[in-house]
Design brief:
- By secondary structure, the chain is an alpha/beta fold.
- It folds into 3 domains: about 250 residues, Alpha-Beta Complex (2-enoyl-CoA Hydratase, Chain A, domain 1), CATH 3.90.226.10; about 180 residues, NAD(P)-binding Rossmann-like Domain (Rossmann fold), CATH 3.40.50; about 110 residues, Orthogonal Bundle (N-(1-d-carboxylethyl)-l-norvaline Dehydrogenase, domain 2), CATH 1.10.1040.10.
- It has an 8-stranded mixed β-sheet, sandwiched between helices.
- Strand 1 and strand 2 form a beta hairpin.
- Helix 26 crosses helix 27.
- The protein starts with a strand and ends with a helix.
- The chain binds 3-hydroxybutanoyl-coenzyme A and 1,4-dihydronicotinamide adenine dinucleotide.
- The site of 3-hydroxybutanoyl-coenzyme A has 25 residues, from strand 5 and helix 3.
Amino acid sequence: MGAPVSYDVVDGIGVISIDNPPVNALSHAVRSGILDGIRTAADDASAAVVIRCEGRTFIAGADITEFGKPPKDPWLPEVVDAIEALDKPVVAAIHGTALGGGFEVALGSHYRIALKSAKVGLPEVKLGLLPGAGGTQRTPRLAGVQAALDLMTSGAPIPASSAEAAGLVDRVVDDGLDAAALAYARELVDEGAACRRTSELPPSSADPSIFAEYKRQLERRAHGQLAPQKIVDCVEAASRLPFPEGSIVEREAFMACMASPQSAGLRHMFFAEREAAKINGLDKSTPLREVAKVGVIGAGTMGSGIAMNFANAGMQVYLLEVNDDALGRGLETIAKNYAGGVKRGKMSEEQALATRERITGTTDYADLADADLVVEAVFEDLGLKQDIFERLDEVCKPGAILATNTSYQDVNKIAAATSRPADVIGLHFFSPAHIMKLLEVVRGDATADDVLATCMKLAKAIRKIPVVSGVCYGFIGNRMLQHYGREANLCLIEGATPETIDTAMQQWGMAMGPMRVFDLAGLDVGYKARQGLPPEERGDPRAFVIPDALVEMGRLGQKTGAGLYTYDPDTRDYRFDAESLEVIETQAKELGIERREIDASEIVDRLIFSLINEGMRIVEEGIAQRPSDIDVVYVYGYGFPAWRGGPMFYADTVGLDEVYKRVCEFRDRFGEENWAPAPLLERLAGEGRSLAEWASDPSS
Ligand code: 3HC
Ligand code: NAI
């Protein structure tokens, strides 16, 4: 492979070209190459310099694969400072995404020109980091304190036009970036324009009180996270200190973040998400099936959201229901969701209308005859689903992919209702289906490779994060959730309150405590499922008598204004009330349970270690391809804090021997049935190995 950075002189302008696929990350070779280019330009006859990139994007940031390894000179701050120090105008020519260290290279340049389609941003916070090459000091000097704080603490990229308005980009062009950048450089030379060094601008002024207030807001929006708080410290430093001193504050903060377990967790998630898209043993050249027309069966909570995903991605959708009333309700929900999108400025009225019009309601299976994919989302009833798949088998064209959104049912049994089980797969969306990022792709025993590969690709097209799961009750996510939910309910009857449980879990980092989740999903869902089972198959009554009693009083959760909590009908504010407490105490008494104080650490350990223990079984059985896939499921589907890296990464952070010890303690206290340690956990703890070590060679 040739050098990733080249230097040429084009019509008197020095051009530093970076070519380091796929995203021109700032590897050691790229940093060295840019520095060499700058040094060459310093001594040659070029009048100005353009920094540009080959391929699909400008530099997308530091090379994340180098993090955690011994640093090699030159460091990025040194490279950026050398760019800025050059005595000839330097123009950064931005296309694609200029992110993180990439945008810092652009900020070190004296002028910035961007394609209209480009985006710029400082997404380090998403990796538990902050811009470490002058970004925290230069951004507020160019865009002001408020814009800098927003850009860096959200990590969200902004379009070139917004960057231009904020003073972060000087010129935006529709196309022909390379020629425009050369012309811009020539123009600057002709005008005798100065080498505009951002570091020489005075500190950006700001009312000092805004920083404390911003930190308070972050404590709510990014509770417990280190990097956002440190970003505020750095911007505060930029508001009062000269650049060199502010840079020292930045460096110390960057190193502290880099060494934090939070950043380790978030960096793990970055790669875990990308790894999850890869299917072990599947040939990369597997041909894909074309999907342009999609059928969705059932226009309830899930079906209506599922239909929107495909319409949003430009596909034609036929939404099928049992009758016109049910169909009307589904289409109305969809219309409301799009109207909400327009109201929140997510799309224009015209876009909403055009997208909605891609969804056609029907009650006639004949409309699905030429669908490339059908997703079934009717009631959770195996017999009903099998009937529908039998019907699809008769109606759909050969080669159509037949998918079920079932939460728990056996995909193999559903596939067996057809004469083409190879075309059947599970596509398990999460509620609300048009918003939640996770998609569990359930591979049946007979699912064809090309069906699986097509669905993984399709997931990306509809902006989901897919994770492959094997067939088992509840697949990866809900199978583990049963254990988490059981422990939450047991803590409740043993002595905790909904509030103490939710506070403990939210303080620990879960997006929402389990009691609020139960109320949101509806306590009646589990109740109905249990009613369908003979009493001896319903499990441990201590884990469900409270929700069942609440349901029988009409307290189904948020939808009836009360469940474990009561809800304000207007604001949805929730509070724990005396009636709920009475139910809890009565049910405990009836089962002869003497309620006791349960502290937050017991609540957290019981809920999280029960998840981990089941996760261990899931990886050992091969239901998940790798432990990190479980992390992706929990972070994107269940509100697990990304900065803890998902449950399986967290297990390694705690240490498997410690997890094993605690699981054994719980087994001794609460019994073998719920707490038998997973064989893999027991083995790895005994061998002193981590899950990550095991994952690199699962046959060992
Ligand atoms: N370093 C190393 N590898 C990277 C990378 C990076 N910064 N960014 C992306 N990659 C790799 C991915 O792992 C993936 O590898 P794979 O094909 O082997 O799985 C490949 O590049 C393609 O990435 P995506 O699948 O994500 O491609 P997309 O086209 O969907 O997205 C992107 C492109 C928007 C650039 C996205 O990859 C991205 O957001 N990257 C991270 C950007 C980032 O966080 N930059 C800041 C880094 S920290 C920093 O700069 C510190 C500095 O301040 C000192
Ligand atoms: P829902 O009760 O809101 O909607 C089901 C819809 O299916 C109803 O509109 C009903 O009229 C329709 N339907 C029933 N029989 C039909 C038939 N024969 N032909 C066409 N339509 C028919 O149920 P929900 O919540 O949308 O669940 C659907 C499926 O998605 C279930 O398998 C469920 O387990 C699964 N799921 C549900 C999640 C949730 O949070 N609600 C999350 C993920 C999966």
